[in-house]
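This week, think about what follows.
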Amino acid sequence: MNFKQPFNQLDQKLSATIAVNESKYLYFGGTAYLGIPQNQEFIKRYMEGISRYGLNNGTSRGNNVQLGIYDEAEAFAAQKFGAQAALISSSGYLAAKLVVQHYAAFGNIRYAPNSHPAIWLHGDPENRLEFEDWSRQIVEEINSSKAEKWVLLSNSMNNLYPEIYDFSFISNINPDKKIVLIIDDSHGIGILNAGTGVFTGVPKLGHVELVVVASMAKALGLDAGVVLGSKQAIQELKQSDEFYGASPPAAAGLYALIRADEIYQKAYEKLQHNVKKFAELLPNQSLWHFVDKFPVFLCKQDHVERQLLEEKILISSFPYPDKNGKILNRIVLSSWHNDPDILKLISAL
């Protein structure tokens, strides 16, 4: 069944509901894991930011006149997510591209399985291994090679077939090697490691330069991107043409970000409540794949999307890895769901 209709709006009273052709559907999809786009307290702070800074800022970060909110937000992001320093860009895609371009010539490049296109340098690396197998092989390859410098690129997790990756393997790499580890944490930041993201969970080693890139448009609810790393790495990246010449994100969003710690914490706790409740009530758990504390549930049963659509419930349902691939049916929970939403979903399953 092909249900591909533009929805008209998100219901402001029932924020988990979308309107399609004047009919309302309960929605379990998307990437707004913390429900920030409709969080009224966050919107209030965003509006305060608009009153102070206006709708956007079209000047580049290289301009001789700068808004101080950008340095303030970068210092805040570094502290919040456990890094020495941070760089904020207008999108996660730009953040990833400027990092990859900067380190492209550093050394031999290797991609982990299922890496996002934002961190590809020259097209699909076509790595179809399991992450655990890849990590074991890459340690063997680096340690047995005469090459000293390497660039490793990976997602922090696979959000389509939920899997959180373990980066402890880097501790097994010969300390005489120089490694740059670039991780795309777009689906983990705000969720993994109690909301701090992947950066705090990766071993910190003297021979490994850890650089994390992420879209802030998912769990964090901002049209912006962030890079986390050492002070030296961030300082070098801020000299890049991609950073120096690009317009930054709207200052209003960053104003809200800095003042939203309590909002994010409450949203995170609500999300974890929803995840726990759904997992406990989920029938036939053998038909589902999910990981602890992450709000995506992959159904192994064919045509579950049709069954739910009859109950006016929409889930994430599309072919993968391309249009000819198998349909992936996923239920995505958000902080904007409440107990009645979850109970209705459970009863429909």
The first helix runs from residue 40 to 53.
